[in-house]
Design brief:
The complex is a heterodimer of chains A (about 120) and B (about 150). Chain A has about 120 residues and is an all-alpha fold. Chain A has four helices and no strands. The longest helix of chain A is centred in the middle third of the chain and has 26 residues. The chains are: A mainly alpha (about 120), B mainly alpha (about 150).
Chain lengths: ~120, ~150
């Protein structure tokens, strides 16, 4: 993993998460902004997938468990799709909150991924 | 299907997504633990798998809680979850040798920002407020006035 890219991702996810939860609690339904922010997160996640595949081949191998890393990454990619689907099945203010919760979850998962990638295996 | 008692709506849907995330997290973690080093801590890792199953069941049961059978399942799963986080959380301090391994419930769920500790209370609250309506058409559904946006699906 590349630290600065992870930080950008986590930053985007945290901002999107807080924004969407705020918008949702303010009574807004999902908009281009909220759904778009999650689309951006998904795009960055897919870039992360590419980085994770290319990295080890280009001299940036993980020192931690690759298996655990991939479990997280795949879960995160799927969670965005599942979360948006669940949110948009019934459009209400709570849909926007759901999008925010998903974004914050992704932020946590990304940070865990960074830790797993760089951790020293005993 | 078309005459399903009541569709999951409103804030309950937020509850479901949090449960789904926890189910995903617990399942993923448990999968890795069992594949990689089950013998390190069989008890804690078995517990990890059990918690994953409980979260999956709770998620599904909440979605389907409008039906009486699933409503009971939701109760059982969430109470189990509450007991699990309290007991395992305590045991990680009392018997660290056996339990001081990463599971969702270790140290009261500290690895998951204590969501596992708070979540069952929300779950139980939601179940208490949203009893499944009886077969009769009229009922005292409490959430009609809860939020206007949900009304379009009534």
């Amino acid at each position: 993993m590349i630290l600065w890219f992870t930080l950008v991702q986590v930053g985007v996810a945290v901002v999107a998460g807080l924004l969407c939860i705020g918008l949702g609690l303010a009574g807004r339904r999902p908009s281009d902004l909220s759904v778009g922010s999650l689309a951006l997160i998904e795009l960055l996640l897919l870039v992360q997938v590419v980085i994770a595949i290319v990295g080890p081949l280009a001299g940036n191998p993980p020192t931690g468990s690759l298996l655990e890393f991939w479990v997280y990454l795949v879960s995160a990619v799927l969670l965005v799709f599942g979360g948006v689907a669940w949110a948009l099945l019934e459009r209400s203010r709570w849909s926007t909150v759901i999008i925010g919760v998903v974004a914050l979850s992704i932020a946590v998962m990304l940070w865990r991924m960074q830790v797993i990638w760089t951790i020293q295996v005993a | 299907m078309s005459s399903s008692p009541r569709r999951m709506s409103g804030i309950g849907r937020v509850l479901v997504i949090v449960y789904a995330v926890m189910a995903l997290a617990a399942t993923g973690r448990s999968f890795v633990q069992i594949v990689r080093a089950f013998d390190d801590a069989p008890l804690a890792y078995t517990l990890s798998a059990v918690s994953a199953v409980v979260y999956i069941v709770a998620t599904l049961a909440l979605i389907l809680a409008g039906r009486r059978g699933w409503y009971l399942v939701a109760w059982v799963a969430i109470v189990f979850e509450l007991v699990g986080v309290l007991v395992v959380g305590t045991l990680t301090f009392v018997l660290p040798d056996l339990f001081a391994h990463q599971t969702v419930w270790s140290w009261f769920g500290i690895g998951y920002v204590f969501v596992p500790l708070v979540l069952p209370f929300f779950g139980l609250w939601w179940l208490v407020v949203h009893r499944p309506q009886s077969a009769a058409s009229d009922s005292d559904v409490p959430d009609a006035a809860e939020h206007a946006p949900a009304a379009e699906h009534a």
